[in-house]
Amino acid sequence: MTLHQVSFTVNGKKVSVEVEPRQTLADVLRGQLGLTGTHLGCEHGVCGACTIIVNGEPARGCLMLGVQAEGAEILTVEGASPDEGLSLIQEALREFHGLQCGFCTPGMVMALHHLFSVNTSPTEEEIKEAISGQLCRCTGYQGIVNAAKAVAQRLQAQQ
Amino acid sequence: MTIGARIPRVEDARFLRGEGRYVADLAMPFMVEAYVLRSPYPHAIIRSIDASEALKLEGVEAVFTAADVPADLGPIVCRIPTHGDLSPYLQHPLAQDRVRYVGEPIAVIVAKSRAICEDAAELVEIDFDPLPAITSPYRAIEPNAEPIHEAGNLAGDWGFDLGNVEEALKSAAYTVQESFSVQRHTAMPMETRGLLASYDRGRNLLEVHGATKVVHTNRNMLAGMLGMSEQDIRLVEPDVGGSFGARGEFYPEDFLIPFAAKRLCKPVRWIEDRVEHFGAINHSRDSDFVVTVAADENGIITAFDVKLVTDMGGYIRTHGDVVPSHAAACFPGPYKVRNYRINTKTVMTNKTPTGTYRAPGMFEANFARERAIDRLADKMGLERAELRRRNLIPAEMMPWHVGTESVKRPTIFDSGDYPAVFEKALAGYGWDAPFEREENGWLRGRGLCAFVEPSGLGAFEGVRLEVDQRGNVTIFSGSSNQGQGHETVLAQIVSSIIDVPVEKIAVRHGDTGIITFGGGTYASRTAVLCGEALYNASHGIRDKALKTASAKFNIPVEELELREGAVWQAGKNEPLITLGGIARILMPGNPEFLKPPSDKNIPDHDGLVVTSYIRGVPGGTWAFAVHIADVLVDPRTGETKVEKYFVACDVGRQLNPLIVEGQLIGGVAQGLGGTFLEELTYSEDGQLTTGTFADYMMPNVYNMPPVSTLVLEDVKPEGNVLGVKGVGEIGPSGVAAAIGNAIADALKSNTGLNILPFTPERVLSAVPTVTR
Lengths: 159, 772
Prior knowledge:
heterodimer, A: alpha+beta, DNA polymerase, domain 1, 2 domains, 5 strands, 34% helix, globular, B: alpha+beta, Aldehyde Oxidoreductase, domain 3, Aldehyde Oxidoreductase, domain 4, 3 domains, 7-stranded mixed sheet, 19 helices, 2Fe-2S-bd_dom_sf (chain A), oxidoreductase activity (chain A), Diverse_Oxidoreductases (chain A)
């Protein structure tokens, strides 16, 4: 199969990879760039585990083709994590037990990362909307919503 | 004291940073990928398979069919006792000459990439002779039904008959008879299954990553099937994205992928895709009940008379008939009812085989029993909680022997004060508090249920505890972990006994290479069994450390204490020696002998290491729980909204309340999925029609009501040293029952709420015409 050269920025780093036209972006990130934090739960765009940020907007890594990423700015969970320790969002998820098996977690972190990057004081309804496309089988979402509410409070307190 | 502390989990950081290592994140040099070619027919004879064109495709390494596995390879055996002989219904790893469900493995294709495998699959020519498919267990046991197996479609027909049900029914002041149906649905972990197997031919060593749940059991089964020594095979659990009872059993792929790796002498990776998962993983529940409940004029329940039919699917798998077995053994629930009869029929159909899903048999039985009890209360004009109150097993009758057994274990409710917990639950929720019956045209109802939930089952568990020269502690656990939080909870137990901070205690689990025997994780057992083994091992470490320090410093043990990772002499401000120092002394061959060696043995010099195996209590330990919910129902559309949900339970003792609460709330979410949304439906011709997340609906954040919990630690079970009961399955177990009762209460109607899931159509059909 013909390979296509694709160049984009991921987590602030310029990369250039050769991809098959049928490869999804998630497969490129995971298989060729070793960014395995982006998880594949369904590969049909429903579960949200592969949520990444593409050009500032949340996107499903499984519904985009690698060749579509030409020139894009991509952020994955690896890029949304500090060099050491946890981000404010990650710390709150831990504190409020907003994860169990951890498989949906990177997608959840990215969905919340996007929410707080555009809205530092979301309401509970806005939080729910932001994660309404993310399936979690373990937690029942309560800990995740509580964590996000705490993040909103803490961001307010910082201002 | 870290036992009981509400501390965040130590394993969370890696998951949050995307550094979890799940099986699909693993790779090896020269690795090839496998794809399982599955039956598109629910029932067919395989006339021939021609893979010659597929083998010509560039990048294809092999195509394995039933002809390639050893002729004497038997089917995958059942790992637990069954009611009667179910061996005629076991599944072979690859279909031999007949397929019995859509999704049954027929061939394994191995190629340089998964994409090439899928291309090759298109080129495999299979000549099928389709047979009539049977998707209803009632149709399956009709006399003229197409036989799915030679032994007949009725795999099991058994039951219990305790007391005198006939007499009780005859003399009853009230009886209620109702039919209930619990739909086929399943665990659906967010991570699909996967395996990475590699074989070192020169050393004859096989390593399989991606196992979980019962790795030692699976290792032993695999050794038998491959004709290898158990010690030449290592099964390793990576991070695992949920199991909930379904994932980690020995499936066809658990033979096929290692087999392919061994044949090809190359690492072979298989990652299941979601669509594949829907048809391949064990389905569950799928049980119908006819319940007759009888009571005297005082509201004392005098008998349960039950008929149960469970659709087992196309084969019997490793779990055997545990779902109907648990349901039948536990049907009477927390009530002191001595006249109990059940007939159970387990029936084969042309659907995916079944196994356990969180609260197996219990979710089902609780739904049928608790809905029937509400009907009885209504018929008697007795308040619903009051009827239950009059029938709960009193504390002084503990332990309560039901008189049944499941998987050859007697059903014994070991401990608890059910009436006391019941009253606390009612008070905690405000059961009696008045509420608005109507709001903007919606009707509000309140429902409850009471039940018992088993935990801590299984024959044994084991751990090894090691302290290194620097005082770092490692737990090697025979139980496994699929996200529950064992890395934290197990560390808490050790920490509280040897007084080393949780952060300095690593937990290794789910690996046959780290401990000789292991029971695994199922039936909410790890806190109970692994917890006790660890308690003993921790005390072993403590005793060994004190004895060693005593010998070294010539101070009586009684004057020594272990704290802050060191041994101290009472009254002194400086520690005598750290745990790491003790570990150094105890290293084998250390010249600093504590006493002159006799012969060449160095019995005291086997490291600061203790292995502990403990035997399980045959009946396990049972938690009593109450669920209560308020539900709004729109009588015009059948739409429902759960306003609040409440779980009360006595768990003996909490190891970490944060995790207990998480298990309960997450469990309720799964229960709500099974109550309202999730259904594996089949068309009449045997095709699964809800095979994607677009058709099989699971709860999202909007489907979740606020859930509150009341976790009591009133009565400690005596069967385990920590006094704990497992909490993994209390969450889902009562949800359908409580919700069904709440909707019925809202509608003042009892018809139509006996069939799960409660879709708007079904709820609407239950609305009395006068309300509509």
